[in-house]
From TrEMBL, chains A, B:
One of its GO terms (biological process) is L-leucine biosynthetic process. One of its GO terms (molecular function) is 2-isopropylmalate synthase activity. PANTHER family: (R)-CITRAMALATE SYNTHASE (PTHR43538:SF1), ALPHA-IPM SYNTHASE/HOMOCITRATE SYNTHASE (PTHR43538). It is an enzyme of class 2 (transferase). Keywords: Amino-acid biosynthesis, Branched-chain amino acid biosynthesis, Isoleucine biosynthesis, Transferase. It comes from Candidatus Borkfalkia ceftriaxoniphila. It comes from the Bacteria. This is Citramalate synthase. The lineage of its organism: Bacteria, Bacillati, Bacillota, Clostridia, Christensenellales. Pathway: Amino-acid biosynthesis; L-isoleucine biosynthesis; 2-oxobutanoate from pyruvate: step 1/3.
Length: 522, 522
């Protein structure tokens, strides 16, 4: 029987401290629903005291019927010199109407005396009284001991006494925070062990930040030392360098260390859950993110690709399918023919490895490579190209012409205007748009011309646009490669275009992105 | 006396396996120069056997006079069933003409029997003979034991015998590779300790990948257990989830654990080095990257910012200035005036640090940074901006307007036409040009309009053009940063432009490049 760990996700609270994230109410509901579906134990949904919108959110969220997750409201211990009954923050925690609340309090002696300027005893009273106030009002209390590890290193007795005060007040979970994120795993292990031995009847939690690039390792070390509750954010969002990345921690602990973090049958939903949260936050998951990144199981070097084909675990630490991710072979000049075939057969199982079609495809890919195409990050364009060669696919529209004008001074603040004329099944349409730049204008004009024929493209959106200059010694006459990433509600795909003209390269990638969306639908 | 660790950077070899990275020869030279300036011990510059361009690169690189770093050529043990003298890979390692070479060999029994299909003894022979062949030809050999940790877990005796073979052949460094990236720090520590005790006269190295999000922690654990050579890539570039991130590891070990990785006086160059490598690779450093990220020391206004102002280390694990990064307050930016002054005084020694001019410059640079300007790789634009503020310089021309038209189908093969109207000393000129793309057409038209006034610009030529998409989640309406490098017969300079419109961003960088050429002449 594997030991169960509590997973506590703070994407909506600590994660929302990220410099570039702000969640709407709908976004938050979507994240809660997604995390509940995945089966995390706790979802910290916000700080009801921070502003009226947060409090309204807690009222609205009561209507959700969650399958498994408990919502948690976050706040702090009472202020000094007032009673708990007078403390608006504690009152708002009661009003948030969740079964669990998390409150942080000081456990580092220097922060007590220098930052909040309280006496050591005063701070211990604030902790104990605040926790007791909440438990007496029926709450289950998670105590977040802020700066616990730095505090323990400075004055272990005082840091432990903060925990004792929380325990005396009735806290059920003692969460040890590495607030500044500089903790090392060996320190985490030593200190958590002391705490776990001292509080055998309470659940000990760990809350790490990634300022030293060690938050995952620290969390794993804490679990080895007896922590049974892990706080973090699913994609590592958070202030500065982010919080501990729960997707990585869960995979490490459940797939490799014999702990139970999520219901076993939900492990395969991790990739999709990550994509949904990233889309909701409008943040792209880094392609090299452990386990869930687009490239986490991508193989480029000929030798590695060969090795994986011979023996799956030769260059993979886990099977990507276990978490819903996929193996990818990057099609660069160094991948061999077996990698190309392996990729093709996923989509076109009928192609014969030694047949004529395969020879034509290989030839075409070689020509495209000479032009500067690389499909390693643009699988959708790869599939389209092969589909065209195989005759599986007809383009969704025909371009008659486009004209894009950039000018300075700008007109009504818009620097670019695009006119696009296309034909679909013999019907011609022309549409125009202005935009922040030529590609923006072109994208809007093309979508406008096509919507009548393909209303579903309204549900797709460009989320990433990358430009790389090839053979750049030719400078402004050099070729450029444009990569465009598009999403709809369930999926994301990347397309590529190459040209000496950045507008044309963008056009190619853009039409591929639309063609791909329409082809998949069919 | 702090223990010295060897830092081995593989950005140009293992880092180039990243899905979206390809370095030109100029890029590689720039990376080498940057890493040498920083003071890393080894720079793995490529695999001379992989293709003729790589071998040419090693020939060209001989001309570099490096201050400190040793270049390393990478390859493998000989193939089975042939002699070392016949092995093209080993011969190319000799021809690469570096003092050090790194070769990888199998140390995991299953990879020997299943992937390369050799007998256990045959593989040991391949290792020993290959290392001996290289050492007898005067090379110092770093042996990369591929899959060492997984191999040790499967069959410790065989994994160790691979190291013994390398040692018998004369290897000076035994680098233990976690090729699949699934290693945990406690395993790293236990296994490295065994190896370090077994080979007390050799240097033990560690080479980690980040598939479990643990590469930094694994590397640190290995050092604690006796490793004295750390392989990684400066920004964590690499196949799948990347290699161990050296910038994080160096900071952790040198700032917090008492090891010496870089000359102490170079630690403050880490941030700038990271920016230069990132720009060269055309990859944005993630904003939340430990130590070097834009947000690594960013505090949202409120309690944390307040705490930091009361007591610097209350919410910072290290002082950002130590590595050349800065504290940022996200809502009320308080910028490091002395850092700006340090840069300005190199060019404009008369500017008073506490004077009014300095205040205006600092304000202007802060505004530009908010817009997305970065001057690390565009010093010419930086000098121009400051010169303008100081009144040292008048723009060489005034733009009246430009109009750039892109169209498909192309006319006589040209897709873009530019019309540029400018004024110089009250004289107006209009010129037009077509081109391979809009920036090309614009560049030609502008030069054509200006030549009459400034014949010397005929002697300048654009040699590099780079585009970076900022906040790319906004996709085609996102801002772009354009970098243009221009040369004349004696010099080269880089300029930068930022706009939501790629044409305007290019225009800004282009006019800066011409203005800078003309300012220098004066």
């Amino acid at each position: 029987m594997n030991t169960k760990l509590q997973i506590f996700d703070s994407t909506l609270r600590d994660g929302a401290q990220s410099a570039n994230i702000s969640f709407s109410v709908e976004d938050k509901l979507k994240v809660i629903e997604t995390l509940d579906e995945l089966g995390v134990d706790f979802i910290e949904a916000g700080n009801p005291y921070s502003n009226p919108a947060e409090m309204q959110f807690f009222q609205r969220v009561q209507a959700l019927k969650l399958k498994r997750s408990k919502l948690v409201a976050f706040g702090s211990t009472r202020r000094k010199n007032i009673s708990c009954e007078e403390d608006s923050n504690l009152k708002s925690l009661l009003a948030a109407n969740t079964e669990y609340v998390a409150i942080f309090g000081k456990s580092h002696i220097l922060h007590v005396t220098e930052v909040i300027k309280a006496t050591p005893d005063e701070n211990l009273c604030m902790i104990e009284e605040s926790v007791r106030f909440l438990t007496e009002h029926g709450k289950k209390v998670i105590f977040d001991a802020e700066h616990f590890f730095d505090g323990y290193k400075a004055d272990p007795a005082y840091a432990l006494s903060a925990l004792e005060s929380a325990a005396a007040g009735g806290a059920c979970i003692l969460s040890l925070c590495d607030t500044n994120g500089g903790l090392f795993p060996d320190e985490a292990e030593t200190i958590v062990r002391v705490v776990a031995e001292k509080f055998p009847s309470l659940v000990v939690g760990i809350h790490c930040h990634n300022d030293g690039g060690l938050a995952v390792a620290d969390s794993v070390a804490a679990v080895c030392a007896g922590a049974r509750h892990i706080q973090g954010t699913f994609l590592g969002f958070g202030e500065r360098c982010g919080n501990a990345n729960l997707s990585t921690i869960i995979c490490n602990l459940q797939l490799k260390c014999g702990y139970l973090c999520l219901p076993a049958e939900n492990m395969q939903k991790i990739y999709e859950c990550a994509m949904t949260i990233a889309e909701t936050a409008n943040i792209a998951v880094p392609q090299n993110e452990p386990y869930i990144g687009m490239n986490a199981f991508a193989h480029k070097a000929g030798m590695h690709a060969d090795g994986v084909l011979k023996c799956a675990n030769s260059f993979e630490h886990v099977d990507p399918a276990v978490i819903g991710n996929k193996r990818r072979f990057l099609l660069s000049e160094i991948s061999g023919k077996s990698a190309i075939y392996d990729k093709i057969k996923n989509y076109f199982p009928k192609v014969d490895k030694n047949g004529r079609e395969m020879a034509i495809i290989a030839e075409e890919l070689k020509n495209l490579a000479v032009q500067g195409y690389q499909f390693e990050a643009a699988e959708a364009s790869f599939i389209l190209r092969v589909s065209r060669i195989l005759g599986h696919y007809t383009p969704s529209f025909e371009l008659i012409n486009y004209k894009i004008i950039n000018e300075q001074p700008a007109i009504e603040g818009k620097v670019a205007t695009a006119v696009v004329k296309i034909r679909v099944n013999g019907v011609t349409r022309i549409a125009a748009s202005d935009g922040e730049g030529p590609v923006h204008a072109m994208d809007l004009a093309l979508r406008s011309a096509l919507t009548e024929f393909y209303p579903e493209i309204a549900g797709t959106a460009l989320v990433d646009y990358k430009v790389r200059v090839l053979n750049s010694d030719k400078a402004t006459a050099a070729k450029v490669r444009v990569l465009i990433t598009t999403v709809n509600s369930t999926d994301s795909w990347t397309t590529v275009g190459v040209s000496e003209d950045i507008i044309e390269a963008s056009w190619i990638a853009l039409t591929d992105s639309i063609d791909y969306a329409l082809m998949k639908r069919m």
